[in-house]
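Subject: complex prediction, re-run

Hi both,

The earlier run crashed halfway through, so I resubmitted it with identical inputs.
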Amino acid sequence: MATYFGEVVEQSSRAFWGDQCDSEDDVHSDSPTNWRKLEVSPSPTQLMSSRIKLFLVVHGPLTEGFVEACFLDKGVPIAEINEAETEGEESFRRRKRKSSAIYSLLSDVLLCICSSHLDMAQSFDFTEKISPWMKNAEQVIILTCSYISGYHITRHQDDSPDTFLKALKTDNFSSLVLSETLEQPNTVKGIPAGVLTWCQIFEIPAVLYICYTRSYEVDSASVKLFQQLFSKLPFKLLKEKPNFTNRLYSGPEISSTLYM
Amino acid sequence: MGLQIDTRYSLQDIDMIHIQENVNLKGCTLIFPSVSVGNAAQLAVDLLITKIKPQKVGLIWHPAIMPLVGGDPYSLNETALTTSAEVFYSGQWKLVIFQIRSPIMQEASQDFVDRITEWIKENYIDKIVILSGIFDYTRNDSEIAGPSVKFVASRTFREKCDVLQRLGDQTATSGYQTCSVVICDGSQDPKKISMYGGGISWKFFNACNVGGIPAVVLMKYCSEGDNIPDAILLCTHLNTLLNFAPSDCNWESPPSWTGMFGNPPQHGLY
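This time it finished cleanly. Structure:
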């Protein structure tokens, strides 16, 4: 496979997941999985307000940083999604992993922030866990981010912007899409893809916005596109003065795209 | 008034294959690409869909398939959403085609296979062709000298398919092999038929055999790399089996294949 200087070429997915590469050396379906099931707390059966106008799903460090800095105070979560604990696992209890959580931003707007610790393999489970809320939503908006080095182009482009937004939507999403469509051969994987796929299947109008950027450092420049996006939506979710002092991602947590 | 919501779910209660158009699949042949070496099977299905232009009729939702979304891979102008596993239908050729764009997780693959075989029976699908790549290096000495394409068919499939019978006889009469044909029945030791690198090919084939569904695995020996020629060969042999295009047709690649081997170089390098 050809590679180009400075370009990060992700490992090809090909046929295999982990070391089990063939049904002849099969892992039996009842063998322990490498990832844990998820559970919702405090209780699986909850009361929810009447139909909501917007269910917002946020995935990725830049988008989470944008929400923390620019959105209205989200308060305490109305639900948390954690990995299920297996009895007797002391090491699991000691390991602190950030929860995913659902917040009520407005009376008719819910926000779901996905934990950065979730594995891509947990995408189906996570999507099913939040699906009861999505079923009651008039629309779903998914925000995610990716390094610009992962963006595929088919011909050379001069003066490419450092940060730009692309969108994918379900077939029944009729509201205005506020950025260009994500072109082939670019794709989105994991939880954002799971949520959009679920919405496509169950015909919930949904749009996914992906921000391609050179760095996940959260500042006024990096989140500008998201701010512009939300200023055009009929939901008043933005603070008048964003607060970038509570920096979620900085320093060594921001990985370079030059070295694997 | 509050709404009761329940976040618990049972996998068995979740529909896996969502057909969103009113189609009758009775009597159709199912084409299933196993996620395997070189993605040869998936590339072959891309060529097939670009050639016969079937209608997209459904989506698949199962924990075995990693979610993935993107734009329309078969058109530069359309804005339709594509997901990781989709179902296509051609009434003209009586074909149901699955396309799978992401890895199959082994831990959930048995349930995935069981539910597809159940769905095949519920919809009275006639037979199934599993496309697969398998590792080139697993060929033994006699196989290395032979053809790189192999059919492994159940007896029930061979009874339905005269072409397969002729392909098997061809090797005996002409001495020139374009493919090899192996007939496998349910009692045969599965270890005797190697599909190493074929993903869930054997698992699915075996499940069809056990379930009484006529099935054949059409496999291509290959390695990782530029697998477009492997995909073309798979399509050519699939066409020999099912006869949906002229034998000398050109297989066009879809727009999504552009940039398969990375971005174009920066002009500033030169």
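Chain A is about 20% helix and 25% strand.

- K.
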